[in-house]
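Lab notebook, bench 4. Still working through the backlog of constructs that have no structural model yet. Next entry is a single chain of 252 residues. Request: give me the structure tokens for it.
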Amino acid sequence: MLTERKSLITGNWKMHKTLAEARALAREIRLGLPVKARLEVALAPPYTALAAVYEENYGSPICLAAQDTYWEKQGAFTGAISPVMLKDAGCRFVIVGHSERRQIFGETNETVNRKLKAVLDTGLCPILCVGETIEQRQAGRTLEVVTAQLREGLAGITGLSGENLVIAYEPVWAIGTGLNATPDQAQEVHGVIRRLLAEMGAPAQSIRILYGGSVTPDNAASLLAQPDIDGALVGGASLKADSFLKIIASAG
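Model written out:
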């Protein structure tokens, strides 16, 4: 990884943790956090625990992230949460287009694009997720799928920088399965993403690209050693402080 890009390790807790559990986990992570100049850490608890985790980490280097958002600022959208609300809750990052949102909730590149624009308009930093299914990989369509997700997700968006955009490559077949892309497989796609960003006129060398998909303390170091992998979007291993802290220790 180029030294100009600060590593980012983000824990996506998904639909886990009550308020008490979220506070306890955030506290453990905060107390065990290593001091590293070129490292950022973010936690993405469920909506119900955002305020609690923000309070627990207040004054620490740990940033708050949301797992999703809606594209309207307010209105009659029962069950939806806007970027304005997320900013008010203390969020800095918002995960957009996670494969579980695409696969389970039917999100498309078009809806992802609308969410990205809303997040950016609110002054928050989206973490745009892209990645292929096992069927698409086996059919040799990985780069085609990732290219479409990136181009259509970022369509019509200008003024991108390393401060207001993060990309996360998450092969769907590696999420929660115990499988993970090899360092070479991940680096290949990360390299393509960086070239695509450059082709689209974005400052590719300053935008961080994370890897996600069964990241563990055992494989984190080899993945994070790749030149175009700038951090990790961690799922299951972020639900326990010891494993998440070991991954953090591998970065930076």
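Notes after review: The radius of gyration is 17 Å. The beta strands are 7-12, 39-44, 62-66, 93-96, 125-130, 166-169, 208-212, 231-234. Flag for follow-up if needed.
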